[in-house]
Design brief:
The protein folds into two domains: about 140 residues, 2-Layer Sandwich (Beta-Lactamase); about 230 residues, Phosphatase 2c, domain 1 (4-Layer Sandwich), CATH 3.60.40. Helices cover about 35% and strands about 30% of the residues. The strands form three sheets. The protein has a six-stranded antiparallel beta sheet with strand order 3-2-1-6-5-4. Strands 7-8-17-16-13-14 form a six-stranded antiparallel beta sheet. A hairpin with a 3-residue loop joins strand 9 and strand 10. Helix 6 packs parallel to helix 7. The longest helix has 21 residues. The radius of gyration is 23 Å and the shape is globular. It comes from Streptomyces sviceus (strain ATCC 29083 / DSM 924 / JCM 4929 / NBRC 13980 / NCIMB 11184 / NRRL 5439 / UC 5370).
Amino acid sequence: MDVVKASEPQPSAEAQLRAAAPHTLVATARRLLAERVDAQEVTLLLADYGLDVLQPVTHLPHTGPPVSAQEGPAGSAFLTQKPVLEVLHDPVGNLAHLPITVRGDRLGVLSVQLPAGAVDPHTVLQLGDFATALGHEVTTAGRDTDLYLQARRTRRLTLAAEMQWQLLPGRGCAREEYVIGAHLEPAYSIGGDTFDWSTGADHLFLTITDGMGQGIDASLLASLTTGALRNARRAGIGLADQACLADQAVYAQYGGKAYTSTLLLRFELATGLVQAVDAGSPQLFRQRGGRTERVELEAQLPLGMFEETLYAEQTFRVEPGDRLIAVSSGVHGTRSATGDLFGERVLRQVLGATRSTAPHETARAVVAGLIEHFGSKELLSDAAVVCLDWNGRQG
């Protein structure tokens, strides 16, 4: 009697992406989409550090000619975070551009060339899910290969910038209660400015740090401060004590000769209550309704300026629909070539004009306004912007 073996089920696309070697994700994506939707070409485009262009990932020299991250079909998909279909005439068909976003962090766009008549809503939905799965694998693969980091670069980073980018949790984060978008400039030579966040079941911690100095020295100082804050946070202690322990770590290393200005925030996700420690120069603004106002906090000493400084927490509350914008001194303290301060007035104008845009674009627009005011992308001081939209917890 013959025994008929049941055919084994085909592994899912997600499973095959997970099984692929880190540097072969694009080749695996091409093969899978050719099999499943008759894709004729597949291109992975990653946003560069300055969010100016989308760079194709190839084998050598790791990227091809870039396309705009602000204009054109691919740029539109990246900006709007919605699929964009481009009609092709030679060859006849369609080019589907799918945004790639991982937990609110916008990585880039997946462009898939399909034959004429092969595009329908179900296929676009499938491609969107595939793009998200690919984004997760690209993020994970970054631990084991430099390919995707190299593909993001339009030029070489300074060593200080390399160190700073490795500190960051990402450039965005999203969940039910909030959406965060952040931006840093000058992207390829940043030194001391950085930001960090961590979310849990009931709380969100958010910090923005303005390190003293420039270059490697500033980057080392920011790294020590970020590490000390994370260590204290992960020990489960209160916000003021986190600031105290980080203050001690920085003072122990530098003896007051170098210090960091840091804004620490802790959000209660269920209530919108915010605890804050203002240790220095970052400024915080809130947009509620049609108004933009400075959140006035008690200015306390920067971390590491003096030995064993004690810090006190303050509280305020955010409501659904509120937007918070935190900026480093490289934003509010920058002057133009004629000596005009960028200042609160100009910042309010930019924030008012971008109220309806996503947090990522607002953060980028603030830096773009700063660059226009300064007259050059080569800013003299680092500029960090973090924008948070508060939705609150439903029910």
